Amino acid sequence: MILHPGILGLLITAVLVLGLVLYGAYLGAIVLVRWDLDSSSEEQLALERKTYLLSTLMGHAMALEILSALIFLYTLEDIHAIFVGAMCATGTLNANPVGWWVLGAKILGLLFCAVWILLNRIDQRAEDYPLTRLKYGLLLLLAPLLALETWLLFRFFLGLDPSVITSCCGTLFSGSGAGVGAEIAGLPVFPLMIAFFGGTAVYLAAGTLNLRQARPRLRYLLAGLSLSMLGISLASIIAFISSYHYELPTHHCPFCILQADYHYIGYPMYLTLFAATFYGLMVGIAEPLRRVASVEGVIAAAQPRWTRLSMLLFGLFVVIAAWPMVFSDFTLEGFY
Q1: What does the pLDDT read at residue 172?
Q2: CA atoms in the 13 A half-sphere facing the CB of 189
Q3: What is d(CA 207, CA 235) in angstroms, rounded to the nearest whole number?
Q4: Is 224 helix (H, G, I), strand (E, B) or coil?
Q5: DSSP characters for 234-283?
Q6: Distance (Å, rounded) from C-alpha 124 to C-alpha 145?
Q7: What is the pTM of this model?
Q8: CA 102 – CA 108 distance, rounded (Å)
Q9: Which residues on neighbouring strands pair with residue 165, listed in sequence order?
Q10: Nearest to 62 by CA among 26, 4, 101, 14
């Protein structure tokens, strides 16, 4: 294993978070069977004390899990110089392909943990804690995901060998190459631009309509659009947005934008995109919970705020992404 502060920190964090979540899942199984807020039994009082304390700890643990996703990206980028042939985080991931599975698990875990944190906040604002069974039941789903992520993380870092000659983004994200990355890089630019900017207009219009007409169907529509725009945006970053930031039509890597040479622009770009997607999803995810009387008012007040945050963050993402398209002399016009 490569002894690097980021690697050691990620492994220790993964074990600590997993330990807390496993205990939370164990308690969640008990809560699903025995939780009864109308009871004043000693067992119920003990459960209430445990869940209150554990909810606080779980909130911090999940915030740590979200932070670890960013540290994982930074570490991938920081150690790429160790590997022959690596020019960015892509080379590190290719040095041990298990890393791609870790990246996918990190993204899923990030969204899952963020949803749990908001559900916990909603639940704690109600006097009868109506979402206790739901949020602890979700831990039963999160525990195996984090267990898989931790196992993959150890496999990835323990399997890294500095003597391995790895391939980098020029091979993986080449329009003339093979594989999913190459296929996305080779997508026709002009139609994808229409999909990206047209989808942005539709998304912002749907958000505005949500603020003016509070209807369940519109909230579900916004959640669906936020997920669709995440996919379109990630494809656009690879196909043309990154090329504008690099000012090189053949460079499509979604990781090189995390480097100092490009002012670390990838970090605010991805943060705003995923945060916008999360808040957009929450508008629809929380809608069925409005049937619970004690949290209906809390959710009704939060949904417009989430909608505005999603629109603002997605707007910032588009500004960051499109900045060089507007203010630089570089163009992909000949590649449309």
Answers
A1: 76
A2: 16
A3: 22
A4: helix
A5: HHHIIIIIHHHHHT-TT---SSGGGSGGGTTTHHHHHHHHHHHHHHHHHH
A6: 25
A7: 0.90
A8: 10
A9: 84
A10: 14
Do 313 and 275 meet the contact criterion of CB atoms below 8 Å apart? yes
Q: Is 209 exposed, middle or buried (0-12, 13-18, 19+ CB in 10 A)?
A: middle
For residue 207 the two structure tokens come to 């958000």
310-325 pLDDT, tens digit per residue, is 999 999 999 999 998 8
**Predicted confidence (pLDDT) per residue in 31-66, tens digit:** 777 776 667 777 777 777 777 777 888 888 889 999
Confidence of residue 85 (pLDDT cuts 50, 70, 90): confident
What mean pLDDT do residues 157-163 have? 87
Contacts of 125 (CB under 8 A, 6+ apart): 295, 298
What's the first-to-final CA gap in the chain, in angstroms? 45
What are the structural domain ranges in the chain?
Answer: 5-158, 169-335
Tokens describing residue 221: 């529509």
Task: Count CB neighbours of 97 within 10 A.
Answer: 10
> Are 119 and 131 spatial neighbours (Cβ–Cβ below 8 Å)?
yes
HSE-up (13 A, CA, CB side) for residue 24:
33
Amino acid at position 139, single letter: L
Q: Of 110, 108, 132, which Cα lies nearest the Cα of 54? A: 132
Tokens of 212: 């003016």
Q: Give buried/exposed letters for 258-271 (b at 16+ CB in 10 A, else e).
A: bbeeeeebbeebbe
- CB under 8 Å to 162, separation ≥6 — which residues? 2, 82, 83
Chain segment 255-288, per-residue pLDDT in tens: 889 988 888 999 999 999 999 999 999 999 999 9
Is residue 309 a contact partner of residue 264, using CB atoms and an 8 Å limit? no
Q: What is the mean pLDDT of the chain?
A: 87
Determine if residue 2 is left, alpha or beta; phi over 0 gives left, psi from -120 to 50 gives alpha, anything else beta: beta
Between CA 303 and CA 283 the distance in angstroms is 5
Identify whether the C-beta of residue 299 lies closer than 8 Å to the C-beta of residue 289: yes
